[in-house]
Write a structure and sequence with these properties.
The complex is a heterodimer. Chain A is an all-alpha fold. Chain A is built from three helices and no strands. Chain B has a five-stranded parallel beta sheet with strand order 3-2-1-4-5, with helices on both faces. In chain B, helix 4 links the parallel strand 1 and strand 2. Classes of the chains: A mainly alpha, B alpha/beta.
């Protein structure tokens, strides 16, 4: 289990790095928002794995907060970009 | 028991991580926003569900189960909504898509290209050919001979002018078809006579066209207002008829 947790952590960090590459490359703001949205999902998974590794079930409360925050920020970005286009 | 649970949790965990990594690879590798979104929203949802179910198995208490199932439920609810919002926003902001993306709305679209002939029309043809290829559509080049000015001439003279104009129109249509053929698109040509915008509208209805491609009106400098007025009248008339999309190529 310990090994699986280590592999999972490494894999999720790799996913985060790939998302980060997309945020750097762009080319449009929408690409970056998609990458950020995916990043927040990966971070939710990361916190879940971390909670297992530290044997701390309390950390799972963070999951709910990050998940909802990620969704709200995505929607806010989408609305913001759309408003900009209409003006 | 505990071993079985651990092994199950590890399998779920690694499956979830695998899907998350695939999503991230998709985000980097796929060519446009819409495809990246497709990678991100779907595989991440299933990846997250795998990881969280592993968390649930690992701790195995009711408290954890409630939180984890809540998060899974929220993800399944919010990921599609978020992806939809970004897609909509990208479409409104005119973010382009991958050149090889094809639209195929279950049927062949009929694309009518109104042509005047001459070098200025070539760009209009190009746009129409491009659209026909994009939609896998049927392309029709239409040339309308304007008969309004012929009423003032004496009948024999008018007939002679008409004959010449028909010959000219045929060669214009052949040139347009040749241009389409060179681009690998089959097209047919149609010739009509009458007042231009009314004839266009009638033709659009006759072939049940989905897209009409017209050039920006040909005009002498300083006369743009009049030309624009003609264009708007034509567009207004077509709008009333309903289901045709008009593309004005410059």
């Amino acid at each position: 289990m310990r090994l699986a947790l280590d592999i999972a952590l490494a894999g999720l960090v790799f996913a985060l790095l790939l998302d980060f590459v997309r945020i750097l490359l762009g080319p449009t703001a929408h690409d970056r928002v998609v990458a950020l949205d995916n990043m927040s999902s990966v971070v939710v998974g990361l916190v879940g794995v971390y909670a297992m590794r530290r044997e701390q079930a309390v950390l799972l409360d963070v999951l709910i907060v990050i998940g909802l925050l990620g969704f709200i920020s995505t929607v806010a970005f989408a609305r913001y970009l759309e408003r900009g286009a209409q003006q | 028991m505990s071993v079985v649970r651990d092994v199950l949790a590890a399998i779920l965990l690694l499956t979830g991580v695998f899907f998350s990594v695939v999503a991230a690879v998709g985000i980097v590798r796929l060519p446009d926003v819409y495809l990246r979104m497709h990678a991100s929203s779907k595989s991440t949802t299933i990846g997250l569900a795998g990881i969280l179910l592993a968390v649930f198995l690992y701790f195995g208490t009711y408290e954890v189960a409630t939180k984890v199932l809540l998060v899974i439920f929220f993800t399944f609810l919010t990921a599609p909504v978020g992806a939809h919002m970004i897609a909509r926003s990208a479409y409104v902001c005119a973010v382009g898509w991958y050149a090889q993306t094809t639209r195929y709305d279950l049927e062949r679209a009929t694309i009518v290209c109104a042509t005047r002939g001459g070098p200025a029309s070539e760009r209009v043809h190009e746009r129409a050919i491009e659209l026909a290829r994009e939609r896998n559509g049927e392309l029709v080049f239409l040339h309308v001979i304007d008969t309004r000015d012929l009423g003032d001439l004496e009948p024999a003279r008018a007939a002679a002018v008409m004959r010449q104009m028909r010959t000219l129109a045929q060669s214009i249509l052949r040139a347009a078809q040749a241009q389409a053929r060179a681009a690998g698109v089959r097209a047919r040509g149609e010739l009509r006579e009458g007042e231009v915008s009314r004839t266009l509208q009638a033709f659009v209805q006759e072939v049940d066209a989905d897209v009409l491609v017209v050039g920006y009106p040909h005009t002498a400098p300083g006369n743009e207002h009049e030309a624009e007025g003609r264009l708007w009248r034509l567009l207004g008339g077509l709008q009333e008829q309903g289901n045709v999309r008009v593309v004005v190529a410059r």
